[in-house]
Specification:
205 residues, alpha/beta, 3 helices, 6 strands, disordered N terminus
Length: 205
């Protein structure tokens, strides 16, 4: 996990730099925000390709597959991904080509979903009894276990040679797409796409 800065423990030296409740709250918020921006990005590429010569791109959506998972492929997601990819490539100085034939490279994508199980256990201690008893209060414990099923999404961006249709570069990352309702942040998706394309062309990272 990377953050743009570090938190310093200030305060009165006489107190030994003890963290105040307010400072502890800020540190917790920073950890949560930093964790939300971890996309676990990776990339791979063909060393023989002269990526420095690439200037214009052509976006192609993947073909529609009958029976595909509707969370992995739908018209809303296709529009969001295309908008994010074109915007980030524009930030990088690339320009869209009028057609595949006029492009230096083609960019497309895939979305993979993997079923995951998350087990959460919560323990509760309940005190009972009174101080007059020889051993003080009695404590009884109870544990509640919840099993949540969710889908971990991986976004894959592929760069292809427009003539040979061969894969020349691939980048992928997780945690930028969600199958949960009301958790489809376009800004988060763009940040994830930006994190992947930070590695394109090779040598940028």
């Amino acid at each position: 996990m990377q953050t743009s800065g570090s938190l310093r423990s200030g305060g009165n030296p006489k107190r030994g730099g003890r963290a105040t409740p307010a400072r502890m709250a800020l540190m917790l918020i920073a950890l949560v925000v930093g964790g939300c921006q971890t996309f676990n990005v990776r990339s791979d590429w063909d060393d023989t390709v002269r990526f420095e010569e690439l200037r214009r791109f052509h976006f192609e959506a993947p073909p529609t597959v009958e029976g595909a998972n509707p969370f992995a492929d739908n018209t809303l997601m296709r529009k969001r991904i295309r908008t994010a990819v074109e915007a980030v490539l524009g930030e990088r100085g690339f320009r869209p080509a009028a057609s595949r034939a006029r492009a230096d490279f083609v960019i497309t994508y895939q979305v993979l979903l993997e079923e995951e199980l998350r087990v959460d256990s919560t323990g509760v201690d309940i005190g009972a009894g009174g101080w007059r008893r020889p051993y003080g209060y009695g404590v009884f414990g109870s544990t509640t276990t919840r099993v949540n099923n969710f889908q971990e999404a991986t976004l894959i961006l592929d760069v292809l040679d427009p003539e040979k249709n061969e894969l020349t570069w691939r980048g992928w990352g997780q945690r930028m797409l969600s199958t949960k309702d009301r958790d489809r942040s376009e800004e988060r998706l763009r940040e994830g796409v930006r994190a992947i394309l930070d590695r394109f062309p090779p040598g940028r990272e």
